[in-house]
Design a protein that fits this description.
single chain; about 350 residues; alpha/beta; Rossmann fold; 5-stranded parallel β-sheet; 11 strands
């Protein structure tokens, strides 16, 4: 398999040194890491998403939205299992008028014949204007963006739709959008206390969300996990550097009355090497219906899904359980992001 020169050197750089490659003219062009976003950019995306939601309520508005990117095409390269992220991106593209192609099984691509990732991505770029990637290998989306920025003959954006145990930036965007909307009328996100619960070591959604939440003043974190799956040191070091307080604990029930939001996650046992997840007693990290009385009246409960038994189904009817709204928010936020990447966001603000 051919190896493109320069990739390993780039890949081994600290994340902060890589970020300029993913911008053009000062604007984000590829979405690979949560660290790419400034708070002002988050707020702009929230405004675009809010505007899209409002426009979509009428037939005229829906027709307008479907004209915004009807000259563009997208590839959904999803070779790791996905339901919500795939459907969210697919519907975001369709609602904006984009034509989509998809590959959902690596065995149906020429990768099985020994084609390099770089050659495969450059082939995709011959047919589309945007490539959205969900891959089981960490760094694959980064590798795709590097390849197209360094070697391709025309500009093609790449969005990381989930990269191994590393990052899931667009999930973090929809999560923080959901939180921002929830707290918009009660002081915003500044100073809020957020509990992240479950397999934090291998949960890419919580890793990305921490990066975005740290952009807000005074956000405090409670990392609730079994010792074996505690939050990794790189995130803790990043929070220390930004002055965010955090607590590591395995006592879920004790912290419930203290927090403004609970972000629950499942065991990421698809990354097990020796069935280590089966040895963990996960029962103390389940949010039960009886615990609702421990939460503040303005507190919220989120989950990136898929859910197993981390949150009892009886909790769903409580208005503080926002995970179904959270899933739908993903479509609006991803529409906003795609419009921003193509520089068409001003059109939704001008719609009368």
């Amino acid at each position: 398999m051919q190896q493109y020169k320069g990739w390993e050197e780039f890949h081994n750089k600290p994340v902060e040194e890589k970020l300029p490659l993913f911008r053009q003219g000062g604007n984000i062009f590829d979405v690979i890491y949560a660290q790419q976003f400034k708070r002002t950019e988050l707020e702009e995306l929230f405004q675009i998403a809010d505007r899209i939601r409002a426009i979509s309520k009428t037939r005229t508005g829906t027709r307008f939205l479907s004209s915004l990117l009807d000259d563009k095409r997208a590839m959904l390269f999803f070779v790791q299992p996905s339901t919500r992220t795939f459907l969210s991106f697919q519907n975001a593209c369709h609602l904006l008028g984009m034509k989509t192609s998809e590959i959902r099984d690596a065995s149906t691509s020429s990768e099985v014949k020994g084609e390099s990732p770089e050659d495969m991505i450059r082939t995709f770029s011959s047919y589309v204007d945007l490539i959205i990637i969900r891959h089981f290998n960490e760094g694959f989306a980064e590798r795709a963006a590097w390849t197209l920025n360094v070697h391709a003959s025309r500009a093609i954006s790449v969005i990381n739709g989930g990269s191994g145990k590393d990052q899931h930036p667009t999930q973090a965007l929809l999560d923080i959008y959901t939180l921002e909307r929830s707290f918009r009328d009660i002081g915003g996100l500044n100073g809020k206390k957020i509990a992240m619960v479950g397999d934090l070591k291998r949960g890419r959604t919580v890793r990305s969300l921490c990066q975005l939440l740290s952009l807000y003043e005074g956000v405090e974190f409670f990392f609730v996990a079994p010792e074996e799956f505690a939050m990794r040191g790189d995130i803790l070091d990043a929070l220390k550097a930004r002055g965010n307080k955090f607590t590591l604990t395995d006592n879920f029930k004790e912290i419930m009355p203290q927090v403004d939001a609970i972000y629950s996650t499942r065991l990421q046992d698809e990354y097990d090497e020796k069935r280590e997840s089966s040895a963990i007693n996960y029962s103390q990290f389940i949010f039960k219906e009886e615990y609702l009385d421990l939460l503040g009246k303005n507190a919220v409960i989120l989950h990136p899904f898929p859910r197993r038994n981390e949150i009892e189904v009886g909790v769903d009817k409580d208005p503080r359980a926002l995970y179904w709204k959270q899933a739908r928010n993903g479509m609006w936020l991803r529409m906003a992001l795609i419009l921003k990447l193509f520089g068409r966001e001003h059109e939704v603000h001008n719609f009368a």
